[in-house]
Amino acid sequence: MNDLLGKLSSYNLLNYLLSGILFVILSKIFTSYSFVQEDLAMGVFLYYFVGLVISRIGSLLLDPVLKWTKFVRFMDHSDFVKASKVDPKLEVLSEQNNVYRTLIAVFVSILLLKAFEVLKVEFFCVERNETSIFFIFILLLLLFGYRKQTNYIAKRIECDLKSHD
Q: What is the three-class DSSP state of 35?
């Protein structure tokens, strides 16, 4: 277990594991759901996965809303790549930025889970299909997260190829 934890970057620990643990703690306090695991190894894997899902909520749902409302301003990706070569600290700052976004997504996710809990009481069909709804939601998040990451890699390659022309 220690070897596995040692291979995780500090970014993964902060962005996924910490946010997953925080979500599990807060969901137990504020909702009727409990994701707490008695088995430590199972807990680490589950909390990491929960954090990964929450990170995707931040990336795919929170980011667009914050951009649309002009709460945050993003630079063009090619400019970021060029600037990162001049200022390597930008990569670290970007990672820290993503950690903030994921922590915000933890609290948004708690609100969403609480709203789901209320819907479940009001609509029997939601309660009856609760597992399927969660499964489909996570599947869609991971599919769109995969697409976003693939596009990010493609943009990065394009920027690198343009800089070598």
A: coil
